[in-house]
Design goal:
Layout lengths: L6 E3 L5 E3 L15 E2 L13 E5 L6 H7 L3 E3 L4 E2 L7 E8 L1 H15 L8 E9 L7 H11 L5 E4 L35 H22 L8
Length: 217
């Protein structure tokens, strides 16, 4: 079982859950680094980046679904000119979870670029149907390395949709109906995860904006 998370404070007083770097075994292979700013594809700069722990993690689909997100592929976003809040993405299978654990350990060990903050882990179904018990048990272990974990189920309609056909989630969008099509609205689990992500980001920024009680008059 992974060690329990210890409360750690970054330089801006924003509380994030992070293990002490010296207690984490670094992965053998580190993720590449993106030096250029993330693209702004909507009306506003992205609020968070989706990083794939492995190829086929679904970063392009997730970043399309969540309008406030940007797809950073397999690379850490190193540019301070756009967001460095990172959501690690992986498939819910043993190879996907192993890759996710490597990226999370890399960040906990202090090996990600300066400024990067991992805000959670999103796990997308690798197949329809029940998740095998072995995968569920390992998921619980890897989940200990992330402050928040979001699960996205299997959606058959993705097979027949182009990326640009998919509807997008915007903050404060109403919850979709169960019978909605992917071209009309995002799935309920995508909407729920998007709402939670935006809520957590808002809370983090609120904490960061508070004055330091030890230095305030």
């Amino acid at each position: 079982m992974a060690a329990p998370l210890h409360l750690h404070y970054d330089d801006r007083n924003a509380r994030i859950h992070r293990l002490e770097p010296g207690t984490v075994a670094a992965p053998q292979r580190l993720a590449p680094v993106r030096e250029t700013p993330l693209p702004t594809t909507g009306a506003h700069p992205p609020l968070f980046a989706v990083l794939g722990a492995h190829g086929g993690a679904g970063t392009s689909t997730l970043a399309r679904w969540w309008a406030p997100a940007a797809d950073t592929g397999l690379a850490w976003p190193a540019s301070p000119h756009t967001t460095q809040h990172v959501l690690v993405a992986a498939r819910l299978c043993m190879p996907g979870l192993t890759a996710a654990a490597e990226r999370l350990r890399e960040w906990h060990a202090g090996l990600a670029p300066d400024g990067v903050q991992v805000i959670g882990l999103v796990l997308s179904a690798a197949r329809p149907g029940r998740v095998p018990a072995l995968v569920r048990r390992y998921r619980a272990v890897v989940a200990e390395l992330a402050e928040h974990v979001y699960d996205i189920g299997w959606h058959d309609e993705l097979v027949t949709c182009e990326l640009t056909d998919l509807a997008q989630y915007l903050p404060y969008d109403p919850a979709p109906s169960r019978r909605s099509r992917l071209r009309e609205t995002v799935p309920a689990d995508v909407h729920s995860a998007g709402t939670q992500i935006i809520t957590h980001l808002a809370a983090t920024r609120s904490i960061a904006a508070q004055p330091d009680s030890e230095t305030s008059p």
